[in-house]
Structures are given as C-alpha cells and as structure tokens.
Amino acid sequence: MRRIARNGNFRLHANREEGCTSDAMDWAAGIGCLSVVKWLHVHTTEGCTTKAMNWAAGNGFLNVVKWLHVHRTEGCTSAAMDSAARNGHLTVIEWLHSHRSEGCSDKAIGHALRRDHFHVVLFLHQCKIEVQLLTYLRLRLSREVYQWLLANYADDIRDYRILVSKLDTQWVTLVRPRAD
C-alpha cells in the first residue's frame, strides 16, 4: 500500500485486504500527491503521522500542508519549518509561522545559510527566531551575507576563524574551531 501512495495506483486497495500503515499517507504527502492523501483520508483508517506535514513542508507542497492542517489532527513538528528552511521554501515557512504554533528549531537559520537561502534567513531573523548559528565545520558565504551576519550576530560568530580565498574574493569561509 505504501507503493500505491507513492504511485497513485488505487486499484490494489479494492483487491487487497492487508490494508496499509500511516506510512502511505505520510509518503503521499511528502511527494505532494494531494489526491492520494485525500483518497487515503476517506478510504482508510490508518491516517498519518506528523511526518506527513513535515515532509510536505520540507518539499514545498504548501497545498498539501494546508489540506492536512484543515482535515487532519496530527499536525507537525518543528522539523516542518526546519526542512522548509533547508530547502528554501519561504512561502511554506511564512504560512507555517502564521498558522501553526510548532515554530522551528534554533538550527533553521543555519540550515538556510548552508544552502544559500538568504531570503529565508532574513524572514526568520525578522521573526526573532532563536538561533544556533553555524553548527557546521565549514560554511561558505558571500561577502554580503557575511557582512549581514557580522552586523546581526557578531557575538555568535566571534569565535570563528575567517578564511578569505585569494582566488575567489567573492566568498568568505567561516571555520568553527574544533573543541579540543
């Protein structure tokens, strides 16, 4: 049944008796297949887990996130906004911020920075999201982003070593010192 959800093949359900697990709706939501999510909602009793909304959000399927919000009770976790930040889905983040209470973890801005989604970083910063900045050993940033970080998070990056490539003066690399 999980493959049915992934592929949208409903015929098997009518001819099989083993049913499915919540994985079916979770996977369907994660790949943005709203028609399968709706069908499973009506024709099965297994439902879904918070993974459904988390995965839909992380993959940018706002229509699925909205539908789950209205029709299901499982909700999501902070992983929904974290993964949306990681993948640069600002409209999903804005909607989650306005309509859900789970928020994001303190790593969301770092996820967005690592993937160069500065538009997401700016939104999360404006929302006063708590930050655990730069948990990655190396992070390559444009000079503009580095200057913005310095202006807004100077205390958080003061312990980082800054490497400026002589060959590529467009980028700055922050290296977190290893804890010995």
Secondary-structure map with pairings?
Elements: H1 2-7, H2 11-15, H3 23-30, H4 34-43, H5 50-58, H6 62-71, H7 78-86, H8 90-99, H9 108-114, H10 118-126, E1 138-142, H11 143-157, E2 161-164, E3 171-175
Antiparallel strand pairs: 1-3, 2-3
Structure, described:
The protein has 180 residues and is mainly α. It has 2 domains: 133 residues, Ankyrin repeat-containing domain (Serine Threonine Protein Phosphatase 5, Tetratricopeptide repeat); 46 residues, no CATH class. Helix content is 54%, strand content 8%. The protein contains 11 helices and 3 strands. It has a 3-stranded antiparallel sheet with strand order 1-3-2, covered by helices on one side. β2 and β3 form a beta hairpin. α5 runs parallel beside α7 and α7 packs parallel to α9. The longest helix has 15 residues. The mean pLDDT is 81.
Quick recap of the structure?
The protein has 180 residues and is mainly α. The chain contains 11 helices and 3 strands, in the order ααααααααααβαββ. Strand 2 and strand 3 form a beta hairpin.
